[in-house]
Each structure stands twice: as structure tokens, then as C-alpha cells.
Prior knowledge:
The protein is mostly beta strands. It has helices at residues 2-19, 24-27, 108-117, 175-178, 287-297, and strands spanning 30-41, 48-54, 59-72, 80-81, 90-96, 102-106, 141-146, 157-159, 167-172, 179-181, 188-198, 220-233, 237-242, 248-258, 272-276, 279-285, 308-312, 330-331, 338-343, 350-361.
Amino acid sequence: xxxxxxxxxxxxxxxxxxxxxxxxxxxxxxxxxxxxxxxxxxxxxxxxxxxxxxxxxxxxxxxxxxxxxxxxxxxxxxxxxxxxxxxxxxxxxxxxxxxxxxxxxxxxxxxxxxxxxxxxxxxxxxxxxxxxxxxxxxxxxxxxxxxxxxxxxxxxxxxxxxxxxxxxxxxxxxxxxxxxxxxxxxxxxxxxxxxxxxxxxxxxxxxxxxxxxxxxxxxxxxxxxxxxxxxxxxxxxxxxxxxxxxxxxxxxxxxxxxxxxxxxxxxxxxxxxxxxxxxxxxxxxxxxxxxxxxxxxxxxxxxxxxxxxxxxxxxxxxxxxxxxxxxxxxxxxxxxxxxxxxxxxxxxxxxxxxxxxxxxxxxxxxxxxxxxxxxxxxxxxxxxxxxxxxx
Length: 391
């Protein structure tokens, strides 16, 4: 009788184990596919367009890594570069979904800031890479178009169709826009693409246990298309609207430049106010404190980029950008009104670039996605109670 009872208990345990769903991060594996796309070019007097080129369907897209290296070094001569080099080689980078809509549409310098702001990796700033080089005639650097929001696959995009493919398009800027003084000869560069993805798990593992085959919260996606460059600043009284509503805001990034195009903090109001409808998340805060707060939230200690003001909403349940959870994302409706307000201490003519990273549903026309969701026009993901950090 005791043996029968023991056998029954063992069988029940095995049956329970077979019935337990293996979560996606354990069922799948991370895969890197290199040399899927490669381009060789020499910057010239006109921009050079690469693509649009199809990405290879191999699983769920985590990130696209873009590596720029030097094939043949140029000749410097009297050539000089500004502070945005080498990332300003990219006039524009676009990640295009299977329906032909852009999910990313922004220049290289601002994409660098996204890599730092979002805390995707423990060492987020690509300028710390072992082989990084900002040499004007032999640059070497990496930059990433991130899709995954959290390391368990949330935000990863399904890339499984051989006919409906995601695409990548890049524009290498003209020499006159890359260099402050052109070199005698420009370097010949190689641009290589590596796809970072999750494998599609089998329906069951070798022991017969069922496996989760999709990332958690499938359909959750981030968009970097709310990009508003070179907004004119001609008055010391700043009252600049931030055009982003109807979704969840992950962060707002401001890039200030003087009339010569050099990055500077002087174009920003000090004290600094951000108004969201009738609330004030930053209300007459000294600009130095706004900067210090955001710098302390980045995943690594790096030298600050002058002229960059970052307002992060992506610290989740933690104290650093990219920490787990949704609680900190700024919810907006289609009627939300956001403005940057205040007075410059020293009147400075220039421009402000604004990038808003938004969280919404994938495969939706950006012009229409703010109308989806609840009766108020806003959208929040349905958070399963078993998803870690789902608050």
C-alpha cells in the first residue's frame, strides 16, 4: 500500500510538472545573427542612402546592432569634427514595421542618447566599447535600435514571416554636415548589421512540459518617431509645446544648440518647468538639479553630454532607468497638453530638438494609434499578475 501511494505521488508530481508552463525566457534562447546586412561606402558631397533592406526572419527581435568600422582610413589634412562625431555620420536611421510604418526615425546622435537613457544594458553608452574610436579619419563605433523593453522579452517583435518583413533604412550624411572642416579624403566605411533575437520555442520541451511560445505582453512596443528637430528659440521666455499624446511616455529628451549649432545648456529655462495638463512634474526646479537627477539614474557613470536634458519616466519599480515595471511611465490621453516653460537666465538664440519615446501597440499607423484603447483615448497594457514587475 505504501509503495502504491508513493508511485501515485510520483506520477502526480510528473503530471503536474508536465502541465506547468515553462515561461518564455526559459523556453527560448537569445540568438545573434551577424552579417545579415553589410554596406561599404565613402561619405561624399551628398547623403548616401542604405536600404531599405529586409531583416532576416529568425524569431522575436530584441535589438538591431549597427557597427560602423573603417575599411580604409582617410587623410585628415585640415579636417576637424564637432562634438557629435562619429554618431552624426547617420543623418537618419529608420526601423520600419511589416506594414510599412516607421517605428524609429531619428539621427545618430539622438539614437546614442536613447541607448544611454533607456538602460537596456549594464554598460549602456557605446563610447565605452573596447574598440570605440572617434578618430575623424578612422571611426569605429556601434549603436543599437532597441525593440525589447525588458530582458524577459517584453517589447520584442515577432519576426517570423518570410513575406511580411521588418526593414532597416539608414542615411549617411554629406561630408559638409559630418565635419566642421572637411578632411583631405574621407574614410571608406563598412556598416554591418547584427540581429539580436529570441528563438521561437517549441510547443513542449524534451520532458513534455508545455512552453510559452510568445514574449509576455505580446504587442507592447516602443516608438521613437515623435522627433521634432531644430525648434527655434528666439526669446528668453520659453513656452515650447511637446507634441506627444495618446500613449505612455517612456522619456522626453531635449537637445539644445546655439545659433552656430553647438550644443549648449544656455537655451533652456532656469529654473525649469514641465507642465502636463494642470500638473507640474518639474516645477521651477533649478536646471542643475534636473540634470543631476537624471544623470544619477543612468546605469553607468559617464561624462555628461552638454546640451542634453533628459526627463526619464522609465525607472519602473527601481531608481535607475530601465528598471523593471511600468509604474513610472507617464500616461497621456489624446487631449494631454505638455509644455516646457521658464525663462533663460541669459538670453540665447538657438534651437531645441525634442524626442519623445512612446509605448504603444505594434503594427499600428502612428497617426492612428493614439485613437486606440479606452474610452478616454489613452492606452495601458493589460498586466498579467504573474508577470514580474507588472505594475
